[in-house]
Amino acid sequence: MAEKPWGGRFAEKTNKLLERFSQSVSFDKRLYPYDIRGSIAHSKMLAKQGIISEDDAQKIEEGLTEILIEIKSGGFQFSEALEDIHMNIEKRLIEKIGDAGGKLHTARSRNDQVALDIRLYMRDQAKEVVELIAALQEALIGLGKKHAGVIMPGYTHLQRAQPILFSNHMMAYHEMFKRDAERFEDCYKRTNVMPLGAAALAGTTFPIDRNYVAEQLDFPAVTKNSLDSVSDRDFAIEFCAASSILMMHLSRMSEELILWSTDEFGFIRISDAFCTGSSIMPQKKNPDIPELVRGKTGRVFGSLISLLTLMKGLPLAYNRDMQEDKEQIFDTVDTVKMSLQIFAAMMEELEINKEAMLLAADGGYSTATEVADYLVRKGLPFRDAHEVVGKIVRYCIENNIKRVGDLKIDEFQQFSSMIGDDIYIAADLERSTKSKSDLFKIDDIGV
């Protein structure tokens, strides 16, 4: 066998710079368990169809199983000269079992082989990400239940708006992550299709059984077009798109945790186990995890843009450019999984300063909308009620009165004769918050 799998066509040796520039084994070697699993399924199919002998298929399976152990134990020597994980494994297989190993690639190309490997890899990753999202959701539910009834200020434009329950705020992120999980589950469906059998682009003249291979590898369906089978990376782009939305949600939450942990807010305390200090300022405690997650979001966005840019100008079918998809995919997978793991662990140990939250919620005239609603129930059109309460708030500001509910009844009645003593019920922070909380109960998420 020639040194290169395609060496028969070439009269000159490959330039060492090209070998270094074009190799992918330094990063695609993580696909080894999927490459071996796919190759075993392929060899069994070749034997079933009478394309190779049962004895050769048995040797191939035994040899590949031994190689799997070698790689796991760290005893396998990877070679950049062999370009990728596929040729590294095949060359080692031939060294171990001889000519039988050279028959493995019958009716197969590296084009459909890598398409298979990356689909096997990505469907596993999609499942793991969904599981990690569920763990983070459980942490949020636990936090919300532990602090049920805790009131905090809700914000719009980062200005205090209306009092809300802390649990309601946590469940907002629970809903975001629920949609994220649904996106990965949907992506999984399009990833979970078996491409092997397309060969380089046009299929093969051998009488293969694609459905048998699909059954061996737990694929519910096979791809329908040979050119699309080897050139499609939509599923990878979709995974990175779902990952980008997920990281955007984590980044939004990170921003709030960073703000809430400042002395200016003082709403939360992040455990020391998830923070670091300053090399020069002894008093500092920095919210590293939220900051890093917020920063790593850009990496995932970048991977999505890289894949879209990579694919946008490629003619059918396979092009070597597509080798560049793996580093983007791998980095996205690693970033998303680690971010979810550490975020869930951090949230489980988060401490809440309910007194600071309540004090903040009680400021900023946060029950003004409830006072307007009170006037509406008395018969005043909402726009008129809005104007009346706006004047009440301005009066409070001008007279250094901190809360709407601190006005005396005669002060209220300067603005509307409809206002009676029951105004203090409407302006009460806890009553106004609990009167709305029944619309969005934590139990509504099925806990």
Features:
447 residues; mainly alpha; Fumarase C, Chain B, domain 1; Fumarase C, Chain A, domain 2; Ribonucleotide Reductase Protein R1, domain 1; 3 domains; two-stranded antiparallel ribbon; two-stranded antiparallel sheet; 4 strands; 60% helix; elongated
Description:
The structure is a single chain. The chain is mainly α and 447 residues long. It has helices at 16-22, 25-28, 32-48, 54-73, 85-97, 99-102, 110-146, 166-191, 210-216, 226-231, 234-260, 288-311, 325-348, 354-361, 368-377, 382-398, 409-413, 423-426, 429-437; strands at 151-156, 159-165, 268-269, 351-352. The chain folds into three domains: 7-106, Fumarase C, Chain B, domain 1 (Orthogonal Bundle), CATH 1.10.275.10; 111-206 and 220-359, Fumarase/aspartase (Central domain) (Fumarase C, Chain A, domain 2), CATH 1.20.200; 363-435, Fumarase/aspartase (C-terminal domain) (Ribonucleotide Reductase Protein R1, domain 1, Orthogonal Bundle). The chain has a two-stranded antiparallel sheet. Helix 7 runs parallel beside helix 13 (325-348) and helix 11 (234-260) packs antiparallel against helix 12 (288-311). The chain starts with 15 loop residues before the first helix and ends in a 10-residue tail after the last helix.
Oligomer state of the chains in this structure? single chain
Number of strands: 4
Query: H/E element string?
Result: HHHHHHHEEHHHHEHHEHHHHHH
Our count of helices gives: 19
Main β-sheet: number of strands, strand sense, barrel status?
A: 2 strands, antiparallel
Task: Give the CATH level 1 class of the largest domain.
Answer: Mainly Alpha
Helix percentage range: 55-70%
Q: What value does the Rg take, in angstroms?
A: 31 Å
- CATH architecture descriptor of the largest domain: Up-down Bundle
Mean pLDDT value? 94
CATH topology of the largest domain: Fumarase C, Chain A, domain 2
Number of domains: 3
